[in-house]
Design the sequence.
């Protein structure tokens, strides 16, 4: 029994990001319900498993997945899969063509899948197979969008503060620096105008205050391009 399934959906991300994710089998297989990769043979060939449920009947296949075509320029991929029920109840072959196009600031994904079934599942007829496959594709689309959204969010740099917020922070720092400078100047004047000569401890305090003020003044001069 052969059946053809077509699915078109929109993703709100640039085509380059969507293509990079879809072209990576190790990422995309996590979006397919009941599917897993068990071995990477090379960059184009993989081994995996898939479990499906058609009504009360469950089916499991061990198979191979091959990337037949990966056309970066035209954003087109062709995948082929062949699976065999380890209990000898049938087999399944699949060819899927995916094409990506830019649309409305995002990406339109067009999948066309042709599935051939032999054995137990073929007895259910194309109508039931199409209904179940459509449900699986809807789950795949939902999983793909949520996982891609999470990956893009995790990779995005933290937002920069707006100009008003940045200006406010700069003004606060300037005010704090000015206040610190005034306090140091007052302390230095009090030491200078003392009626008795400064002791060694006071002299050291004065030198420390003067050094601290010079360092702070030089720092904010370089930071803000000015200062007294």
Sequence:
């Amino acid at each position: 029994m052969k059946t053809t399934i077509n699915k078109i959906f929109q993703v709100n991300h640039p085509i380059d990001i969507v293509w990079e994710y879809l072209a990576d089998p190790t990422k995309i297989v996590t979006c397919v319900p009941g599917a897993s990769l068990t071995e990477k043979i090379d960059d184009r060939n993989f081994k995996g498993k898939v479990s499906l449920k058609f009504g009360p009947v469950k089916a499991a296949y061990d198979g191979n997945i091959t990337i037949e075509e990966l056309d970066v320029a035209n954003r087109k991929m062709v995948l082929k899969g062949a699976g065999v029920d380890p209990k000898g109840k049938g087999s399944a072959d699949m060819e899927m063509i995916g094409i990506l196009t830019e649309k409305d600031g995002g990406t339109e994904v067009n999948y066309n899948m042709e599935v051939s079934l032999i054995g137990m599942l073929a007895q259910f007829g194309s109508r039931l197979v199409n209904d179940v496959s459509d449900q699986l594709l809807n789950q795949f689309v939902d999983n793909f969008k949520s996982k891609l959204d999470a990956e893009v969010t995790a990779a995005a740099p933290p937002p920069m503060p707006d100009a008003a917020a940045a200006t406010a922070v700069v003004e606060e720092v300037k005010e704090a620096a000015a206040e610190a400078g005034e306090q140091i100047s007052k302390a230095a004047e009090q030491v200078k105008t003392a009626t008795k000569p400064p002791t060694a401890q006071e002299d050291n305090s004065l030198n420390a205050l003067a050094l601290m003020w010079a360092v702070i003044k030089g720092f904010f001069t370089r930071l803000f391009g000015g200062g007294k």
Observations:
- The first helix runs from residue 15 to 22.
